[in-house]
Amino acid sequence: MNYIRLNNGIKMPQLGFGVCRIQDLEKCEEVVLKAMRCGYRLFDTAAIYENEEAIGNAIQKSGIAREELFITSKLWVTNNSYEGAKAGFHESLKKLQLDYIDLYLIHRPLGDYYGAWRALTELYKEGKIRAIGVSNFFNDSLYDLIYNNEVQPAVNQIQCHPFMQRKPEVVLHQELNVQLEAWSPFAVGNYNIFHNEQLVKISKNHQKSVAQIILRWHIQRGLIVIPKTENFERMKENIDIFDFRLSDEEMKAIEKLDMGKNEDTAYRLESLKRVYAIE
Questions:
Q1: Does the active-site annotation cover 191?
Q2: Which of 23, 124, 163, 195 is surrounded by the fewest CB atoms within 10 Å?
C-alpha cells in the first residue's frame, strides 16, 4: 500500500474503500469485512450515507488493531454550524464506536460551514480527530476557508475520473498543500468507461483490467482514491494495482480523454434540491 503524508504530518493510505449508497446495515457490514480481508485499511463513510453503524460493527468484529485503520466520515449540511458540527461529530463517533476519527470532513460548502470549521478545529486540537478537511469545495471556497482560519484543510474530496480530470484543481491544491481525494473514480460507469478504446488498449499492455488502469492513473497523479464495489473479486482486483506502473505515454493518452466537464455542479444542485426541497 502507498501512503500520502498530509499537511499535518499524518499518513493516509492512498487507496481506500467507499461505502456510499450501501444503506442496508447488514450488507454494508458484510462488504466492509470482506474489504478488510482484501487488505483495505482506509474506509470512507458519511452521516448522510446512514451506514456508520455498519462500519463500527465491522471494526469491532475484524480483529484489526485500531491504529491500522484509517476511518473517514463527513458532516452533512444540515449540521453546518458550530453547535451542529459538535453534535454531528459526536453522533458519528458514537455510531462508529470509536474514540477518535482519523479524518472528518465538511461534506459540502453550504450553510454556516465557517462555524462548523471552528468546531472541527477545536475537536482536532482536542485529539478527537487526527485530520480535518472538506468535501466538494470549489477552488474559491477552499481558498477563502484556508486564508481566513487558523487550521487549513488537510484534504478536499471531489469527484474525479478520466473524463473529468480536474486539472486546475490539482494544480491549486498542490500549491495550497491540500491533498485531493477522488470519489467516483469510475464515473459511476458513465461514458462507457470500461469499454473505452484507449483504456482497453492500455489494460492489454499490462494484462490488467480497465478498472485497475483507472485506479493506477489516479495513484500516479498523486491523488487518494476510494473506489466502491460490493463484489469480492473486484475488491481484490481494485487493490492489486501496486505491481505495475503506467508509462509517461500512457498517462498522456489518458490525459487526452478529459472532456473538461464539471459534473459536480449539477450534483451539488441536486443535493440542494433534496436537502432544502427546492423545486
A1: no
A2: 195
